Amino acid sequence: MHSIYIIFPLMTFIGSLGGFFFKKGAEYLIDIKSLFLNWRLYIGGILYVTAALLNIFVLKFLPYSIVVPLTAMTYIWTMIISKIMLKEKINLNKIIGVILITIGSIFIAI
């Protein structure tokens, strides 16, 4: 049963990566045609759906009151991806926020 917790980092990383591809895809939106021809948006959608399917799988084995709060790990991955891949600045408030999310997720998981 504890091995199901291993899926959380993967599930949340895939979801964050989906958001990254949506962000990159949004940069290329010009008109409705570009919306449908934008491969980045398709990858983002596939990643989001994959993360949602993993979430459903996890919900089969764990209580809702644990699964949903632990999906907050997505914020951690999002900050890392935004720093590394988008070169965004990460300030102290964001770091403190991620630390608090991590501590809260640990308390909920215990």
TrEMBL record:
Q: What does the record give under GO molecular function?
A: magnesium ion transmembrane transporter activity
Where is the EamA domain positioned along the sequence?
13-109
Predominant place of localization: membrane
Q: Which residues form the signal peptide?
A: none
Segments crossing the lipid bilayer: 6-23, 35-56, 62-80, 92-109
Do the record's keywords include Magnesium? Answer: no
Q: Does the keyword NAD apply?
A: no
- Subcellular location(s) per record: Membrane
Query: Which keywords belong to this entry?
Result: Membrane, Transmembrane, Transmembrane helix
What Pfam families does this protein's entry cite?
EamA
- Output the InterPro entries linked to this UniProt entry: EamA_dom (IPR000620), EmrE-like (IPR037185), Mg_trans_NIPA (IPR008521)
Q: Name one GO cellular component term.
A: membrane
**Top-level taxon of origin:** Bacteria
Q: How does it sit in the membrane?
A: Multi-pass membrane protein
User: Which PANTHER family does this one have?
Assistant: MAGNESIUM TRANSPORTER NIPA9-RELATED (PTHR12570:SF65), PTHR12570
Give the record's family classification.
Answer: Belongs to the EamA transporter family.
What is the protein name stated in its UniProt record? EamA family transporter
Q: What organism does the UniProt record list as the source?
A: Clostridium tarantellae
